[in-house]
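hey can u check if this looks right to u? its 141 residues, i copy pasted from the old doc so theres a chance i mangled smth
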Amino acid sequence: MLGNSVSSMQNRMFSVFLIIMLPPTIVNSVVPKFYMNRALWEAREYPSRIYGWVAFCTANVICEIPAAIVTALVYWLLWYYPVGLPTDSSSAGYVFLMTVLFFLFQASWGQWICAFAPSFTVISNVSGLLISHGKFPEMMT
């Protein structure tokens, strides 16, 4: 429980900053699962045209919602009250809502990166080939 000094306020602000460090770990846990699901979708559903890419991506994002809500709740409970932030219901509720939305964003952002990663890879490979073959000489300098 932090006090009301200047250093306590700095510690509170640093604790808020720590939530920014979570997205890489969340995204790294979502990426392999998405790639396995996409491989399964490409092998089974894509050739038979059972359902499309939009339905697949939507299902993957929706299945992350319960886990995002539970992890946001656990994170918020272990962070908000021990740091000593305001305990009135309007402040605590607003911070909880923003925490839940941030965790939902992290999960959907990881899915978005995975969904568009192949096209980014193709674009970077083609541009790399063009640069190495001198098609873009101004980029060589």
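Residues 15 and 21 are 11 Å apart (CA to CA).
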